[in-house]
Amino acid sequence: MSEFYIGLMSGTSLDGIDALLVSFPPTDETGTMQVLAHSFKPFDRELKSALLALNGPLDQELHRAALAGNRVASSYAERVRELLQIAGKSAQDIKAIGAHGQTIRHCPGQQGGYTIQLLNGAMLAELSGISVICDLRSRDVAAGGQGAPLVPAFHREQFGQDGRDLAVLNIGGISNISLLGQDGKTMGFDCGPGNCLMDDWILARQGLAYDAAGAWAATGEVLLELLNALLAEPFFAQPPPRSTGRDQFNLAWLAPQLHASFRPQDVQATLLELSARSIADSLQGFGQGNAELLVCGGGALNLRLMQRLQDLLPNLTVLPTDSRGLPVMQVEAAAFAWLAMRFMRRLPGNLPAVTGAKGPRILGALYPA
To answer: For a Cys staple, 249 with which of 193, 217, 224, 322, CB 3.0–4.6 Å?
Structure first.
């Protein structure tokens, strides 16, 4: 009998919570993951502001973080209830929830390294009546890894094709790439800022949460001096394994490079080009023959960004993951449902070649129902 899992994802874009109900075949049977229901709800403005502020130092930040973690758990539980109602399932039908939590710090490799995803897992288990697997990055960091990206193993299982080079790109707040070679090798790493700088800039200048389809960026011109200054950031020259977050790429990082004479729409166009160039640079030399780049995450809905990726990567066919059966806004949540399934079956979820960890590890911490 198939096992049902829920994946909950709220990424660095801070746009809201994606919840996905999926089924996996039992361990002794072959088959593929099936998506049964999807639910999304944006963060309310107060919670989004609180989470965004926690990406930097604050007074009473431990207290604020604990309260925000409780609110994330409550918001996750609401999505679980809605998902179960949509699918006609009960809590007792679900094996476990794989819950990402909200990243507010990601600092691997510093004095042992750490990564913090805000979520009160105990509260989520209490509110949902379902076992919760969370804190999915810390074990990889403890084993000397980056703790990110964790999705390449899932991408290989979901999208990999024999005899074809394939890359899977997630463009959330941060962009990350999975390289699925036709020889069976899998690599992956963070490329740099995806949507985070574009979202923060348009919010500061126009009060909008994001630049729909890249329309505002399309009215501007790329500022080459600014672009080159941003691309000089040492992160972009760092070899894999590598990962990053909002604590590195934010408006405070951008501000020293700005001049009063810059038109806001030109800055937006430059930030879009920065995302596109950092992704394209990460893919240089990849792909033979009919290679494809499958794109997921909110950035896949930015038509201007998708066009720039195709322009910069003429040797790859750039497509949304919808073309391979999994909608762009469901891929990350599906990956965390998959990681929960791996935990419950006591199977490793990381790829040491991707994260740099000392070896395969079972990822996550369990809060039983």
So the answer is: 193
